Amino acid sequence: MEAKAAAETGGEWAERTYEAMAPVYDDFTAHHDYEGWLTDLVKILEADGLQGKRLLDVACGTGKSFLPMLPRGWQVTACDISPNMLELAREKAGNVVELKVADMLELPRFGEFDLIWALDDAINYLLSPAELRQALSCMRANLAPTGLLLFDVNELLAYRTFFAETVVVERDGGQLVWRGLGEKDVAPGSICESRMEVVSDGEGGEPAALTHRQRHFHEAEVLAAIEGAGMECLDVYGHGLDGIPRQPLDDSTHTKAIYIARSARD
Ligand SMILES: C[S@@+](CC[C@H](N)C(=O)[O-])C[C@H]1O[C@@H](n2cnc3c(N)ncnc32)[C@H](O)[C@@H]1O
Questions:
Q1: Mean pLDDT within 152-161
Q2: Is the pTM of this model over 0.85?
Q3: Whether residue 151 has its Cβ less than 6 Å from ligand 1
Q4: Which atom of ligand 1 has the smallest separation from the CA of 11?
Q5: Least confident of 3-7, 125-129, 156-160, 219-223
């Protein structure tokens, strides 16, 4: 009998996607206000007892999720599965940030951190509750005793809108076309895809294309994974496209949920 090929992990899929997307990632996300978003996230972390300034940014991409922390005096270590994304982060950050290629499913112990975060959909590239629990366990192993973990996940509303629509972003020399392949009534826990095409103004040739594959995680799955990874959830927030965290999480209006956790106390 022929052996069944092992299914690809979320990390393997994401690596292929982001190796191809790296040159256009900053153009596609140019409208995201990281300065404002991270300021609000730090405020809610402080309310949950944030201490110290050692940050591990997991799935840091081109650096947008840690760069605003540098002038605030944070000491940053950051990692991503895509070497091409990290190369762009390195160009912006230079030597002041320790940058590592790493899959969050097999995250090494880089040290002891006061804050670990994984931002802007990175967690949704994990494709099952088992992968989510494994990644969170690896993050926990990098937390200082008083350290906090924060991550966001896309809510169902994001998959029923952005992942079910076509969006065109104009850029110098062409367009970025996001073609959501999802359904407007996609079920909780679904895996959704979107094809992205990089179209050049020049004549001829097929547009370069890549496919994003993400899984929706509903609140009960996330809370179970946090507990299964030996942590306790301190707070859950939600926000819409304005990026301002609010409680309670409301899946009819929020496109993202934000979870804050720490190592479970004995
Ligand atoms: C939408 S980008 C967010 C990047 C950055 N955090 C930001 O806010 O701009 C998602 C990132 O997650 C990374 N990623 C996805 N799955 C990963 C995994 N298993 N391990 C490490 N990085 C991963 C991708 O390579 C990509 O850089």
A1: 98
A2: yes
A3: no
A4: 19
A5: 3-7
Element (H, E) at 177: strand 174-180
- The verdict on the CB of residue 56 being under 6 Å from ligand 1 is no
- Token digits for 246? 């609010």
Contact 12, 106 (CB under 8 A): no
Say if CB 5 and CB 211 are below 8 A apart.
no
Length of the chain: 266
Number of the ligand 1 atom closest to the C-alpha atom of 82? 25
Helix (H) or strand (E) holding 55: strand 54-58
Rounded CA separation 15/84 (Å):
9
Tell me the C-alpha distance between 94 and 179, whole Å. Answer: 34
**How many other CB atoms are found less than 10 A from the CB of residue 111?**
12
**Which run of H or E residues covers position 175?**
strand 174-180
Crossing angle, helix 219-228 and helix 129-140, to 10 degrees?
A: 40
pLDDT tens readout for residues 29-75? 999 999 999 999 999 999 999 999 999 999 999 999 999 999 999 99
Q: What tens digit of pLDDT does each residue of 164-174 get?
A: 999 999 988 88
Worst-scoring range by mean pLDDT, 43-57, 117-131, 196-210? 196-210
Pull the structure tokens for residue 6: 């092992």
Residue with tokens 């104009």: 170
Half-sphere exposure of 143 (CA within 13 A, CB side): 25
What CA–CA distance (Å, rounded) separates 20 from 226? 31
